[in-house]
């Protein structure tokens, strides 16, 4: 079958393309922005790409594709989509194609939640891989234990990051209702995606729809310390529920060990101990809970907590999750995907646990749709409070760029210390200011869900130049 994918360069649709190719289909695709690394990854798999969404591309096919798979980046008015509709050509959404053609008949382990989906999915997929299950998986990031973010797999098990974002312009249900999981992990739940959800209740309804699809002989692994998830379960659950969390009241709990390791507890009994690899970059209580949830989910298919813990001892994390980018003049620069206040809090706190009293310079670009709308702006100061200095970028650090004043929102952080938090409207000026502030032993934590204009290398370059200008001998160790 020839499948043509609209919006192919997104992480999710690119994953679908890779899986379809592995399943033996001819795959082509198009997107508005076709550039590395996604374009080179897809082309290396024999997938031909077309730049843009012009309807003229239909004329390029000697034989019309059998099916058009539509990503949720595509909306009405898109020239190619309008041509597909006008000509009555067959189309479906990415999640529906995946559910019907790949997941049907398999044991799906779905990881849902506002935060930690990518990391927890990567942990769970690695636990299965380490224990010989050869799972299929689709993860919204690049898990460092694997070479690709998605694969068809060989066994009956498939791990999927189950996103609550909408499916397509013609299907406004959350993506995860198409996956029909037998093991559903509900990691956490709070308000996000303000561009498509009116309030938290609307998201809870989608999670309730997911719960309704899990069979009675399946399992719901639920964070027992999330009120929103309790409300979801109270609306109806026809499947056994196992709760996890820090408190012993949960069936699965944990006791922190030295560093970021922890003991896995079930019913008050210690079953295993997780010790992260020294170079894994995995840190923070949130990752302990992510791992605990993955262990509980793997237990459902017969992988013991002890075997899961052995796998996690070799877990290498996911790209853009507190990933060390480089070191110049003893200043370490990290990259992290955090873009929601709760994720920012846990990321900063996780780094604080690792570096102790060393200074943290937090660098934030609030560019997600929710942040641009200003829905979470009041929570930003508290989320950044554990950092020593805060630098933010708003494209135009005033009201016109975000619809709200970034400097004004950050002003509570300046009450005790003048200029502790500053906003900039120019990336080069921002990088220079960070480099001027940084001193040996500091940790620069860059947080954005986009490329952030290559600021990581700009910071490293500026730090090196300043050190050289001061006639210092910089200690450098570029990671990539």
TrEMBL record:
GO biological process assignments: cell division; cell wall organization; peptidoglycan biosynthetic process; peptidoglycan turnover; regulation of cell shape
Query: Which InterPro entries does the entry mention?
Result: Mpl, Mur-like_cat_sf, Mur_ligase_C, Mur_ligase_C_dom_sf, Mur_ligase_cen, Mur_ligase_N, MurCDEF_pg_biosynth
- Residues that hold ATP according to the record: 113-119
Q: Which UniProt keywords apply?
A: ATP-binding, Cell cycle, Cell division, Cell shape, Cell wall biogenesis/degradation, Ligase, Magnesium, Nucleotide-binding, Peptidoglycan synthesis
Job description of the protein: Reutilizes the intact tripeptide L-alanyl-gamma-D-glutamyl-meso-diaminopimelate by linking it to UDP-N-acetylmuramate.
> Could you say which protein family the record assigns here?
Belongs to the MurCDEF family. Mpl subfamily.
The protein in question is named UDP-N-acetylmuramate--L-alanyl-gamma-D-glutamyl-meso-2,6-diaminoheptandioate ligase
């Amino acid at each position: 079958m020839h499948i043509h994918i609209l919006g192919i360069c997104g992480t999710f649709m690119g994953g679908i393309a890779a899986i379809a190719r592995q399943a033996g289909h001819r795959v082509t695709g198009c997107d508005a922005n076709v550039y590395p690394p996604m374009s080179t990854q897809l082309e290396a798999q024999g997938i031909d790409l077309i730049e843009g969404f012009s309807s003229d591309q239909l004329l390029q096919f000697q034989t019309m594709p059998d099916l058009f798979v539509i990503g949720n980046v595509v909306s009405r008015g898109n020239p190619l989509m309008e041509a597909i509709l006008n000509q009555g050509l067959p189309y479906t959404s990415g999640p529906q194609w995946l559910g019907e053609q790949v997941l049907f008949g398999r044991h799906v382990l779905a990881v849902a939640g506002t935060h930690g989906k990518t990391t927890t999915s990567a942990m769970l997929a690695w636990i299965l891989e380490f224990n010989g299950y050869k799972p299929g998986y689709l993860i919204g990031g690049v898990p460092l234990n694997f070479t690709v973010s998605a694969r068809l797999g060989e066994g009956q098990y498939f791990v999927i990051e189950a996103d609550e974002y909408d499916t397509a312009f013609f299907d406004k249900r959350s993506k995860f209702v198409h996956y029909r999981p037998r093991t559903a992990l509900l990691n956490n739940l709070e308000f996000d995606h303000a561009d498509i959800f009116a309030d938290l209740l609307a998201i809870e309804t989608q999670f309730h729809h997911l719960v309704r699809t899990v069979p009675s002989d399946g399992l719901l692994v639920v964070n027992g310390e999330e009120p929103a998830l309790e409300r979801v379960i109270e609306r109806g659950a026809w499947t056994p529920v196992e709760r996890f969390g820090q408190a012993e009241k949960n069936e699965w709990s944990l006791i922190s060990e030295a560093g970021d390791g922890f003991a896995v507890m079930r019913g008050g009994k210690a079953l295993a101990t997780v010790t992260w690899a020294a170079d894994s970059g995995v840190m923070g209580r949130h990752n302990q809970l992510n791992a605990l949830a993955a262990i509980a989910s793997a237990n459902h298919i017969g992988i013991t907590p002890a075997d899961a813990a052995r796998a996690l001892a070799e877990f290498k994390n996911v790209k853009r999750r507190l990933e060390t980018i480089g070191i110049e003049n003893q200043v370490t620069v990290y990259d992290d995907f955090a873009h929601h206040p709760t994720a920012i809090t846990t990321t900063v706190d996780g780094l604080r646990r690792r570096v102790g009293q060393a200074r943290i310079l937090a660098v934030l670009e609030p560019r997600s749709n929710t942040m641009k709308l200003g829905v979470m702006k009041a929570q930003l100061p508290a989320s950044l409070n554990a950092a020593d200095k805060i630098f933010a970028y708003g494209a135009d650090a005033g009201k016109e760029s975000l619809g709200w004043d970034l400097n004004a929102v950050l002003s509570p952080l300046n009450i005790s210390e003048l200029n502790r938090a500053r906003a900039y409207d120019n990336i080069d000026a921002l990088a220079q200011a960070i480099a001027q502030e940084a001193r040996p032993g500091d940790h620069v934590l860059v947080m954005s869900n986009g490329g952030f204009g290559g600021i990581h290398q700009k910071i490293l370059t500026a730090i090196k130049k300043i050190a050289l200008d001061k006639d210092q001998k910089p200690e450098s160790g570029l990671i990539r």
